[in-house]
Amino acid sequence: MKFFFPFIYERYLAKQIYAAFGFILFALVALFLFFDTLSELGSVKGQYTLPLAFLHVLLKAPSRISEIIPIAGLIGSIYVFAMLASQSEFTILRIAGLDIRRALTTLAKISLPLIVLTLIMSEWLGPYTESLSEKIRMKALGSSFSSQFKTGIWVKDRLRDEDGSGPIRPGVRYVNVGKIEQDNEIKSIRMYEFDDAYRLLSIRSAVSGRFDRSGTWILDEVTETRFKETKQSDPLNPVYSANTLQYPSISLNSEVTPQILGVLLVSPEKMSIFSLGRFITHLQGNKQDTQRHSIAFWKKVIYPFTIFVMLTLALPFAYLKVRAGSVGIKVFGGIMLGMSFQLFNSLFSNVGLLGSWPTLLTALIPPMTYFILAIVGLRWVSKA
């Protein structure tokens, strides 16, 4: 602690901010978990008992924490700075030589542990407990994942040789999966394969499939229909022959893994940076649009550092005089600031997606806007 915060005032500010942050984070997480539990009560039936529903909600807490940390940091730091201002403690620190530059440096140090905490929750603990939570719920309800489309999940894949293995060749394969079971088994599979001229080569359907450890899909009860163009003198009137075969089981190499299928069922905003990066690579390899996932990727990269922006937004409240308003009004102002940032951040992402703006710029503008507002506010109140 002394090594990281060598000055006494730094340790004092860090202790006050962390204490307020912890209390507010606990209160906000408890509030959100309460509402999540209420919304989950409608699904309680059979083997999915109330304790399991509560466990399902509790395992989602790390994801909630990663979402709430910046807001808790803003409200907690506003409360601390408002209290310091009301007791003239911050005035004493300013007289002792605490200028804006040193104050910002101290806030940067204070924000680092919170940034690490956010990364742990959003990138490692959150996705793991979220997956475990869904598995517990699915096992109790006996349900399976399915997409928002009535026909299931659609994904684009690269085409290989006729037996489904071998090197990649020109063409494309569209894979349709009806359901994904809790053990990564898939049901109701259909595949449509086209050559590089988008002529239909085959239609393959399977009742079920599973992914083995060697990276191969094992499809069961497969029906395959292959189309072949017969040589004709008239190229404008081609004739095709169809050959239908049935197999009890076949092996198929594919770039579509259970992880990619799972990604398709999760909104990009709830994915980890690693999962987003891997899925963006898959989309780029299949020449698909990556705009939405790229915006989410850069937002996830930048999001932990918005904690420093939130702490900077709170700093001007330390310069306000006591007569400028009570602590309660300042905390309420902090809540409004936090809500406005979240709304602006979400709105700007949608605007950037519609306008096809550069993804990094779309993710960077909201926090930079609020950081500039914080610096302008600091300049203004420090001269008042």
Automatic annotation (TrEMBL):
Q: Which residues form a coiled coil?
A: none
Record's Gene Ontology CC terms? Answer: ATP-binding cassette (ABC) transporter complex
- UniProt keyword annotations, A-Z: Cell membrane, Membrane, Transmembrane, Transmembrane helix
Q: InterPro entries given for it?
A: LptG, LptG/LptF_permease
Q: How does it sit in the membrane?
A: Multi-pass membrane protein
According to its UniProt entry, one GO biological process term is: transmembrane transport
**UniProt subcellular location:** Cell membrane
Q: Where are the transmembrane segments?
A: 12-35, 68-85, 106-125, 301-320, 327-348, 360-381
The protein's name in its UniProt record: LPS export ABC transporter permease LptG
Q: Which organism is it from?
A: Polynucleobacter antarcticus
